[in-house]
Amino acid sequence: MTDRGFSRRNRASTASVPADRVTAQGEAPRPSVAGDHPLSWIVFSLARSHRALAASLLGPLGLFPGQELMLMQLWDRDGRSQKELGDLQQLDHSTVAKSVQRLERVGLVTRTPCPWDGRVRLVHLTEKGRLLERAVRDALGELEGRITSALDPQQQQVFITLAGLVVDATEETARGTGISDGTPEGQAHRPPGSPTPGPAP
Predict the structure, then answer these.
(1) Under 8 Å CB-to-CB from 69, ≥6 apart: which residues?
(2) In Å, how far are 123, 159, 176 from 126, measured between CA atoms?
(3) Which of 52, 65, 73, 62 is nearest to 146 (CA)?
(4) pLDDT of residue 134
C-alpha cells in the first residue's frame, strides 16, 4: 500500500529525474530518508496526504483543515471558553485566538464576555455555524472512508492502537522540549503555559 501510494505521488515528477536515476519501472527512487527512517517518513507522508485530502473536502465548505475540529467541540457543547478550546486540542493561546477570529470573520462563531469572569471570552456558534454541522460531519465521514478503504476492520483497529502508542510517545517527548509542530496555522502542540521555543540555531 505504501509503495503504491508513493509511486502515484512521484510518477508525475519522473520526467525531471535524470535517466540514470530512474528505476526499471520508470519511477523516481525514494529519498534516502524513507529507508533510513521509515517510520518518520511514513508518518510525514500520511500527515501530508491526510491534510491535502481533508482540505479538498472541507474547502468547498469554506473551511481549512483544523477549523472543523474547533467547530466540532462547539457542536458538542456551545459556549466554551477560548482556553477550553485550546486545552482540548493542545493549542497555545495565540493560536486559538487567531483560529477563533478567522471563524468569527466568516460568520460561524461569535465571542462574548463571560458573565461571571470578564477576563474570559466565550465562543458561541452562530446560526450559520450550527447549520454547517451536517455538511462537515459528512465530509469527515467521507475522509474516514477514503483513508481506511485499504484496511479491513481488524487492520483498522490494529493501526489505531499502534498509532496511538506512537502519538503518546511523541507527545511525551514533545512535552519536555516545547517543540512547535510547524503547521501553516502556526499551531504549537505544547501544554498551555509552556514557553514558546526560540528560533533554531
Answers:
(1) 89
(2) 10, 37, 38
(3) 52
(4) 97
Percent of the chain with pLDDT over 70: 73
Specify which residues 112 forms β-bridges with. Answer: 122
- Cα(169)–Cα(183) distance, integer angstroms: 20
Q: What is the pTM of this model?
A: 0.68
Cα–Cα dist 194/40, whole Å:
25
Length of the chain as a residue count = 201
Rounded CA gap, 58 and 186, in Å?
19
Separation between Cα atoms, residue 152 and residue 184, nearest integer Å: 33
pLDDT at 35: 82
Cell numbers representing residue 40 in the block = 518518520
Which three cell numbers mark 98?
A: 487567531
> Residue 13 is placed in which grid cell?
515528477
Alpha carbon distance 63, 79 (integer Å): 20
Most distant CA pair in the chain, distance: 70
Locate 127 and state its grid cell. 446560526
The strand order across the sheet containing 80-81 reads 80-81, 117-125, 109-114
Residue 194: partners with Cβ closer than 8 Å, 6 or more residues away? 92, 175, 178
